[in-house]
Amino acid sequence: MTQSVDEIFEQICALIKPFNNKNVPLNKDTVFSVDLELDSLTVMDLLSEIEDEFDITVPLNMLPDLETIGQFTQAVQKLLSE
Amino acid sequence: MTLDLFDKFDPILKDYNSLPDGAANPFTVSMEKVLSPTTAIINGRETILAGTNNYMGMTFNAECIAAAQEALSTQGTGTTGSRVLNGTYNSHKQLETTLKEFYGTDHAIVFSTGYQANLGVISTLAGPKDYVVIDADSHASIYDGCAMGNATVVRFKHNNPENLDKRLTRIRRDDPEAGILVVLEGVYSMLGDQAPLKELTRISKDHKAYVLVDEAHSIGVFGETGRGVAQEQGVEDQVDFIIGTFSKSVGTIGGYCVSNHPKFEALRLVCRPYIFTASLPPSVVASATKALELIASTNLRSKLLDNSRKLNKGLKSIGFTMGTTGESPIAAIIVDDQNTAIAFWGEMLKEGVYVNLALPPATPNRLNLMRCSLSAAHTFEQIDFMLEKFELVGKKLGLIQEVSARATA
Ligand SMILES: Cc1ncc(COP(=O)(O)O)c(C=O)c1O
Known about the structure:
Chain A is an all-alpha fold. Chain A has one domain (5-81): ACP-like (Non-ribosomal Peptide Synthetase Peptidyl Carrier Protein, Chain A), CATH 1.10.1200.10. Helix content of chain A is 49%, strand content 0%. Chain A has helices at residues 5-16, 40-54, 69-81. The longest helix of chain A is centred in the middle third of the chain and has 15 residues, at 40-54. In chain A, 17% of the residues are buried. The mean pLDDT of chain A is 92. By secondary structure, chain B is α/β, with parallel strands linked by helices. Helix content of chain B is 38%, strand content 16%. Chain B has a seven-stranded mixed sheet with strand order 4-10-9-8-7-5-6, with helices on both faces. A four-stranded mixed sheet of chain B has the order 1-2-3-12. Chain B has a three-stranded antiparallel sheet with strand order 11-14-13. In chain B, strand 7, helix 7 (197-206) and strand 8 form a beta-alpha-beta unit. The longest helix of chain B is centred in the C-terminal third of the chain and has 19 residues, at 300-318. The model of chain B has no long low-confidence stretch (mean pLDDT 95). At the A-B interface, helix 2 of A face strand 6 and helix 6 of B.
């Protein structure tokens, strides 16, 4: 099963929901630390949910480059295609 | 215009500057005079130390002090050299032999701190093609060891065997040959919970991963001869590397790693935090060696856990929300509001009890904690005094109800 970028984006947004206490509208440019005010620990917890949802390994090493939902989406798509 | 390098700290300075001034500021308090492992003069008043890591009360042990004094006067104040350049004395070798005997292992390497032991061992063992798999609640030194190395770093949910299994399964699916190092702690220091080492080591071994256990808070405290949680849970043969520190139960400073791996000594040639820093001063080496000998044969462990059960039980019956149960030397009260926690800490100090204020991100689940770590050197009278003050301050801050309102404990 291959997912389109849009499907991956929607799945990630669903996972973010429990972390999005202020109901900030989500788009590909949403920045975790700024728009969602998530600290680094919360982003790591979210990463863990994403790993299990897509059954992939997302190394912590990638986190510094994953600031937006769009970047996360691209990373997941790349890992799924490997 | 050039940037001020310090601008990035503005948010944290803003928080810091909102803390109370003077005696009630947890970052500026200092001890005017240390009287014993459990007492000091702070702000001019005799205070019970309820938040040290002095689990065995070793800092004032007469034999350890005598050994340190002897080493100081015969070997001098410091080595002025790295372990590989002028900094290895016979006493460093002797300390490593004592560690090997203490753990029954073939190899032992001493570092200058436990922080450096984690930094060095993790960053060196796991290379660019390897994986390090760590518990989400790992100590900063473990995270930093990962950041310093070149391995792929994967994190699993705290103490969750199933979550670890999923991650190891994925890594093996993608990379059947990879070297994998799973890093665990015997006791997690904030809430004193033990790792379920039986399950975690079994899963790690099923996936042919190496296991490293950091016993910083469990050496001296658990296991029949004080080796820690791996000994307590009977899984020492499943653990490839044990890391520990002399800065808690051992009562001084320093770190170490022990192992039976036949090539373990190679670390001395490649591990930068071992090579590029000065070795421990002789007096520290001497007191650590003596303390290890004492710890192996002491019965202070049961006194320590009795103390912890007494404090934990007492705090719970007063009506506090506890994060701990008394199975480790830690007693931690959960305080919902951060400012209340800060005020709580200041009031306790005014009453003559120094506890640890532990705040996120150093705590799991973003908890604000009033954290005590007990010592075998605490007397029951001191614990009664702590309980009395906790109750007084807890009521003052509205965290617990009046005595009359609660059931008899
Ligand atoms: C789990 C753990 N590992 C390592 C360390 C570092 O030990 P040291 O004080 O020897 O640097 C600590 C101490 O804070 C710790 O709690």
